[in-house]
Amino acid sequence: MSDRYIDFANSSFGHRLVGALGLPSPVRLERWQAGRLRPIEGALLIGGGPLAERISTLASRLTDGIYSYGTEPSMATAWIPGHGPKLKAVVFDASDLQHTDQLKQLREFFQPLMKNLEHSAHLLILGRAPETLRDPFAASAQRALEGFSRSLAKELRSGATLQLIYVGDGAEDQLEGPLRFFLSPKSAFVSGQVIRLSACATQVSDWTRPLAGRKALVTGAARGIGASIAETLARDGAEVILLDVPPAKSDLEALAARLGGRAITLDICADDAATQLIEQLPDGLDILVHNAGITRDKTLANMTPEFWDAVLAVNLNAPQVLTKALLDSGTLRDNARVILLASISGIAGNRGQTNYAASKAGLIGLAQAWAPTLLDRGISINAVAPGFIETQMTAHIPFGLREAGRRMSSLGQGGLPQDVAEAVAWLAQPGSGAFTGQALRVCGQSVLGA
Ligand SMILES: NC(=O)c1ccc[n+]([C@@H]2O[C@H](COP(=O)([O-])OP(=O)(O)OC[C@H]3O[C@@H](n4cnc5c(N)ncnc54)[C@H](O)[C@@H]3O)[C@@H](O)[C@H]2O)c1
């Protein structure tokens, strides 16, 4: 469903009216277009501590325009406030901040940039996870980055985003994948997130096809977010297997044919679903995306057992049972990537969605609990928690709630299926084993559960 308010707010009359009345003024976000090669089309500014130099050495693969401010990374041109170009991407390494006094570096670095950002600019702050630091003052300084970055993300305008990445020991050499995602339009609808990276043994070898040679299964792939995930994984070089219920067969087969993939019609709640899947995947699987999901909304007072059971069965029980069976049978190969489609309802709760929110929170808990046990096989498991995404599922929400869902975020609009798909495609990469047991929100920094 198209968002007519964005069209209105971006017309010349609408822009003036929205400004005069102080209404939300969402901009059209820049998104990744087919055929694009460079993650950053514009100036990248690098500053801060010891990781800045390391980033400047890989930055030439991201953009032609590399600038530094406050430090002198060897491969960068000095950026002068008021004279340097407008910035499309910014990375500030705050990993060496250890005292309250040093936090002023954040203000000193970012303040001059605020009026020099291009449309849909992407900003990153790098730090060290506070829980890994012994010195309480250093841990406190690093934790302060979280409050700073989430607040600054809310102050950004014109579709700009900002995230904080805590870089763990051994993860310093693996920043290219996260930078390619978080500094490019692939992360257009991700903002205000805190991400933890650890070491990972596997790497992407060809950035034009980061999923080449990988086999991916996407459930609920006939339409909406699942269809977009299948398309994006195929774009990135994966061999895709699309699964959906038998009534969706014709749409599923048409999409599978277009993507050069294979279709499996199967109800993931069927008693023999695990056996059928194992039989149909004799060569194993590298990427498993549990996207199929349903809503059956009612307040708890009116919740029927059927509504409760159906949502828990599809959204939570089936991903648990199928993942375990695919792991136990060896179908899921070493270094596999498992991605569970959760929801911000599972983080914030939502009136009328006790069943749905329980199922989605359960998926986040599943990723957190399972991840440490899969580390020795190099397998990662994560949840992706979308906010309001424009699909058939959200088109059925009553108008008032739909508008609230769209506007109650820093970006002031709903996301597109492509936004969720890009996040899934990043997590599916070989190098993304550095990110596991976490929930990545794709919600435009929704105020819900933030
Ligand atoms: N749209 C949003 O705003 C939003 C927000 C947060 C989370 N999500 C989650 O993202 C996922 C995709 O959402 P969507 O909006 O594209 O939904 P959708 O309803 O458009 O598509 C879901 C797909 O899952 C399939 N499916 C349902 N039950 C199945 C079963 N038992 N076996 C196999 N396939 C089954 C459906 O046939 C459908 O093709 C869901 O898990 C949803 O909960 C969506």
UniProtKB/TrEMBL annotation:
E.C. no: 1.1.1.100
Entry keyword annotation includes Calcium: no
Coiled-coil features, chain-numbered ranges: none
Domain Ketoreductase per the UniProt entry, residue ranges: 214-387
GO molecular function, one term: 3-oxoacyl-[acyl-carrier-protein] reductase (NADPH) activity
UniProt entry keywords in alphabetical sequence: Oxidoreductase
Tagged with keyword Oxidoreductase: yes
Pfam families: adh_short_C2
Family under the similarity heading: Belongs to the short-chain dehydrogenases/reductases (SDR) family.
UniProt name for this protein: 3-oxoacyl-ACP reductase
